[in-house]
Amino acid sequence: MALEASIDRRNHAQSATTNGAVVLPPASYRLRLNPSSEHKPDSYDDLHQLEFTPLLFSSLERYLPPTMLSMSRDVKFQYMRDILMKYSRDGERTREKDVLLWQVICATIQSAVSVQRHKEYRQRIISNYQPLHRELFTMHAPSVLVPAFVKAVRDNTEASFRSIMAEPIPGIYTFEMLQPRFCEMLLSEVENFERWVHDTRFRIMRPNTMNKFGAVLDDFGLETMLDKLMNDFIRPISKVFFPEVGGSTLDSHHGFVVEYGMDRDVELGFHVDDSEVTLNVCLGREFSGGELFFRGVRCDKHVNTETQSEEILDYSHVPGYAVLHRGRHRHGARATTSGSRVNLLVWCRSSVFRELKKYQKECSSWCAECQREKKERQCISIAATKQELLKRIGNTSS
Ligand SMILES: [Zn+2]
């Protein structure tokens, strides 16, 4: 079969074909180790008789040599299939380049498989779960948000944001955001979902490793609505207040609710979020305790360093009110001592910020400890310069 051609035999391939067989590019083409982030891969979903999942081809396409990206889908498909066949056949891969390439392929396969599995998981929920309030699933701003918040974001200036917000310590913004009726509907929708999970014994994934209770809203149909909330309302604010952590390029989110109370999660340890910007809104209902405590923004390297006194903030939740902060702002939640408390969390992420961070060697402008170290280095260097200057003046005048 023509497709069985090994990579090495590609040297002899021509760049055109007369018999309908696809011609493969020369062997000098190599997969790249870093995927192209701008390239929009073709879809391979219609190719049914694949040994590999169609999604794998779309993912692997980003690793193709740049010159190949504009080639026809058939050429790219056969080239990739060829590589995959070769690597799934070969037992021994001793050459270093091959090992690296194999790692790239494995990682790509794993991520494609997990994306595919999650897609199927969501599909299973959405096709079986009957929502209680259909209107929750579209983002109708006046029903979701309080008028002052909508106006401030529409005006879209730092002054308009500040007019409705408090900033109790730098980088923490609190404001009234959600309509009471919306909070109530979302609470009952979550209850309805939990009931369905219980009755059908459907095994759901919890929002994160720290919360045993709560639900991922994106998994039962609210993804589009929350995406709109992020794009139209959270990003404009983040662009102004958190530009250095990708606030203006937020492009994906993880949306969920967490439930606290005596028969739920009680408290939440000290941590940072897997987000660039976090929106945390209290939905209700009756509770005492459960304060959020904040302890300064830190990068990965400095996440366990000491807190300065000016970084300490304790915040008490008010239903309908939001807290907006950087994901790297260290925080935790104290015990909810009575009643029950449900909060909506939207972890907003920026793929651009995450990509750039990989190449960043210097310290972070947004980490308080990095800044303190930088200042210390500057002080030492100024002191040294001063010393040197004094010595020179001393020498010339003697
Ligand atoms: Zn740092």
UniProtKB/TrEMBL annotation:
Gene Ontology terms, MF aspect: dioxygenase activity; iron ion binding; L-ascorbic acid binding; oxidoreductase activity, acting on paired donors, with incorporation or reduction of molecular oxygen
Membrane-spanning segments: none
Highest taxon, organism lineage: Eukaryota
InterPro entries recorded: Oxoglu/Fe-dep_dioxygenase_dom, Pro_4_hyd_alph
Keyword flag Iron: yes
Keywords recorded for this protein, A-Z: Dioxygenase, Iron, Metal-binding, Oxidoreductase
Residue ranges annotated for the Fe2OG dioxygenase domain, each copy included: 251-350
PROSITE patterns given in the database record: FE2OG_OXY
Keyword Iron: yes
UniProt cross-references to Gene3D superfamilies, sorted A to Z: q2cbj1_9rhob like domain
Cofactor: L-ascorbate
Name this protein carries in UniProt: Fe2OG dioxygenase domain-containing protein
Native organism: Citrus unshiu (Satsuma mandarin)
